[in-house]
Structures are given as C-alpha cells and as structure tokens.
C-alpha cells in the first residue's frame, strides 16, 4: 500500500513539472512543436475549469498558478501526511 501512495505522490510532482513546462512553452513560442499537443492533452483538462472561474487577466493566465499552488500546498501535504501515517507511524 505504501508503494501506491508514494507513486501517487510522484505522479502529482511530475504533473506539477508538466504544468510548469507548459507555462514556459506558452511564453516561448520558438520551442513549440508537435509534442506540445500531447502536453496540452494532459494539462488543458485541468486548467479549463479553473479558467472558467478565473479568466486570464491582461494576457496573464492565473490558472497555472492556482493549479500549481493547490497541488503543491494543499494536495501534496495531505498526501504526504497520509503516506507517513500509513507507512511509517506505528
């Protein structure tokens, strides 16, 4: 069970990195290629609902910031606490 919890935590961290890369690509159009479509398939389904609530302000998309903050400062600490309690606390 501990391995599954740790895998889920790793996936959340990897998704945060994908979000960061997608945000950088939006600022650097020279780096765009066919691979960005696949990245968009992973990232856009999460960003779209946030964009409906918080639209871009002056061309600045706040959805990335909101999703990254929620992942890293809300979900991951809860997950880390659950993993610690399930795997290491006796």
If you had to describe this structure to a student in words, what would you say it looks like?
- The chain is mostly helical and 90 residues long.
- The chain has one domain (2-87).
- It has helices at residues 2-27, 35-53, 63-87.
- Helix 1 (2-27) packs across helix 2 (35-53), helix 1 (2-27) packs antiparallel against helix 3 and helix 2 (35-53) crosses helix 3.
- The two termini are 15 Å apart.
Q: How do you describe this structure in short?
A:
This protein is mainly α and 90 residues long. The chain has helices spanning 2-27, 35-53, 63-87. The model has no long low-confidence stretch (mean pLDDT 86).
Helix amount? over 70%
State which percent range the strand residues make up.
under 5%
- What is the SS-derived class? mainly alpha
H-E order: HHH
Number of strand elements: 0
Shape descriptor reads elongated
- List segments where confidence is low: pLDDT < 50 over at least 5 consecutive residues: none
Question: What is the number of helices?
Answer: 3
Quaternary structure state of the chains depicted: single chain
Number of domains: 1
Largest sheet: none
Termini separation comes to 15 Å
Radius of gyration: 16 Å
Look at the structure and give the mean pLDDT.
86
